[in-house]
Amino acid sequence: MPTNTVVTDLKQVTIRFSGDSGDGMQLSGTLFSTLSAIFGNNISTFPDYPAEIRAPQGTLHGVSGFQVRIGSQGIYNSGDRADVLVAMNPAALKVNINNLKRDSIVIYDTDSFENKDLEKADFISDDPFKELNLSSVQAIPVSITSLTKSSLQGMGMDNKEMIRSKNMFALGIVCWLFNRPLEIADQLLEQKFAKKPNLVQANIKALTDGYNYASNIHMTASTYRIETAENNKGFYTDVNGNLATVYGLIAAAEKSGLQLFLGSYPITPATDILHELSKRKDFGVKALQMEDEIAGISAAIGASFAGALAVTSTSGPGLALKSEALNLAVMTELPLVVIDVQRAGPSTGMPTKSEQADLNQALYGRSGESPIVVIAATSPTNCFDSAFWASKIALEHMTPVVLLTDGYIANGSAAWKIPDMDEYPDIKPNYVQVNYKGNHEEWSPYFRDEESMVRYWAVPGTPKYMHRIGGLEKDAKTGILSTDPDNHQFMVDSRKEKIDKIANDLPLLEVLGDKDADTLIVGWGGTYGHLLEAMMKIRGEGKKVAFAHFNFISPLPANTEDVLRRYKKIVVAEQNLGQFAAYLKSIYDGLNIFKFNRVKGQPFIVSRLVEEFIKIIDK
Amino acid sequence: MEQDITIQERQPKDYKSINAVRWCPGCGDHAILNCLYKAMAELNIEQENTVLISGIGCSSRLVYYMNTYGMHTIHGRPIAIATGVKVANPDLSVWVATGDGDSLSIGGNHFIHAIRRNVNINIILFNNKIYGLTKGQYSPTSDRGFVSKSSPYGTVEDPFHPAELCFGARGTFFARSIDVDLKNQTDLMVESAKHKGTSILEVLQNCVIFNNGIYKKYSEKEFRDDKTIFLKHGEKMIFGKDKNKGLVLDGWNLKAVTIGEDGYSMDDVLVHDAASMDNTLQMKLALMGTDSDELPLALGVIRNVAAPVYDEEVAKQITVVQEKQPKKTFTEFLMSSSNLWEKK
User: Fold this and answer.
1) Tens-place pLDDT, residues A463-493
2) Does the predicted interface ipTM exceed a cut of 0.95?
3) Chain A residues lying within 8 Å of B83, measured CB to CB
4) CATH number of the domain where residue A95 is located
5) Is A449 within 8 Å of A435 (Cβ atoms)?
């Protein structure tokens, strides 16, 4: 064992906490990422939950992981493989063999690596490292459970309660390894368990003892100092994508001066949106947990008709249930934000795993000609801007907007600079009493603004503009039911034109990297961080490549065709079997599109992207 | 500050829209619509503060004939949509026009849950025991054995009685009327509107094309007095052409008797208590005449009790939270987050 510990500087590091779903790994991971962010690092996290709430203890399908990548720069995603793995049991070691590097540090709890534990994780020998062919990793045995128990002796806790703090002992070790100041962790624990002072004390004790233990025994030859991020002055907090989505909606409600209304039904991984909005009574948010998905969107449509900023939140299977009601919002041309936090499908699929396979459903999953706005958030923090944009477009253009996020960005967190709300645009709905210049007696509900094609919004309570809308086709001039052939053609065309015109209000598509390269990498939504890093690595290898990532999908940014036609080869990378590639092909003829598709329920692996993209570049 | 308050008396015609009414001649819906105009005039509610929501089916066309705000929505969902309207703006008077197919079949879930929550909306349930708009299939209220296009050999399923669903979902208001009984029906609509919470008014409505005459035994003048009883809160349960019949308790059951016969006097006749929280007797009253003809069919307000109202409770929670803390802007909220740090 070395006698002196040296400090080595690193630009970035990826750490994975892994254990039973009851071991508190999510908390260890969250605390570590938050304190690193407060310490000045950039962070990106990836909570990887099992589907079961509490699977049988020690088994492979009960493993819960939390990966966090911290560093000074280039933290665009949560990292491919871990530099450090904390394994609380043999199952956690086994499921993570592909998440390790050759020389990863593996800190493991010897108390739960006994023969009976090995059996539960289907090991056949008593040497799990050898059995998994992990001889090159730096394995560090620590009897975490018994050390935690000794640490908490005399605090009046029973055995079970003491063991529960072992995640804090493990976190203490990791804090020592990366030279994290414990004061910040202590503060975070005090906030987290403010109502349970005994628990705060116990957790701080276990944390501190874990730190001191690692320090006293010089657990590794070297500890690491992670460079802090380049200076970007301001106030920060950390958010995951679901929370940022909620904040974007609240900001939009404030800008528009409208009441925020959510009609929802619990569904993984979107439920946190319902939780967070239910808390926000301080902002007057009305968040209703309805009896089913259909009632969720229906209540939202009712609230929209009544003049609120109306939202419904769900995941893929829920969006399927909502599709008929969504079409009612298309037909009645009411503002509505529909958030789909995508998960791996089809059907119930893999609820806790991420995917991008609901694009087709969002674009096409309704009867009739049903044009709609589709926006895809690109990162946890971008969920804020995307939700704000979704609300602004819905309210100003009288249309439902589907906001696609995904399980990866919804649960993943990052440090977020508090936005300057003065920099965000106003939201001004097309109110009939404000913008309609004609006589109210001649007005009917499908009169449109000539420029934008947006119909006027007459909210109940407004005198003189009583009207009836509905799912049946209406006469464009009178608003009365109509099956007139020319009128239907006109109304179908008008609804489409209204959506197409929104492109004029959208930011242009940006090209990153070598604009004059032959190959353009194209992505959309939550894969931004991985694709960006892949592009930078390819350029780092001396090859030219450009990268364009889509935040706005329907309508596409106005310069999309110009950008795409500039490249000889376009590689569209997405977590489905090629839905966005097919969408682009359906609009623009003659593009030379290559596809990179993975549907494993896991984030892209950057090294794999680099390898595959280079093959295409070199073709 | 002095204000010039003019009380505007609205007439039934003020609630009529310009749209031509397109139901079949002789359909019960015409009568219901006219009663609604009258009820709204009696309530004198502002057209701009009134919202009608309907689903799909013949009944749901009603929205187009109202000079109020309205949305003709999709099959089964009007009650969920109306819940959103009412919660978003509790100041609006919100009505739902729906049918037995719309609310008891495809929309059954929303029906029971709105009642359970006690959202302050007025639901007029047009029960014609048939799917009219799709041209004559049996509905969830059609009697067992009913022959229709989709049950040529008769149905092999029992019907829902709307009252049972309403009571089972802990309903606070249930009333029943017959489409042709204009005076009472108008009054019942007014009663529904005055009730705070979800009110269900089941209208026995005749479909002249596909299910003509099913309510004849109650609606025709010659039978009406003997086959129905109009219940009024606080009044004796008497019926019959000569007002000489009454309802009494016989063990656990209701029994129709003639006053002055078999030793029954007026003192034995029950007094209707629509305000009783215990709905046992109200349920028995509501089910009279549905499965057999021994007892008269109950009309009028059968249950009307006070309970917390959902939309008010939602608003109240917000008020309570906002009273406890000073109102913050979104930026102030973020800056006061416990999880905030500064990069200098």
Assistant:
1) 999 999 999 999 999 999 999 999 999 999 9
2) yes
3) 288, 290, 295, 298-299, 302
4) 3.40.920.10
5) yes
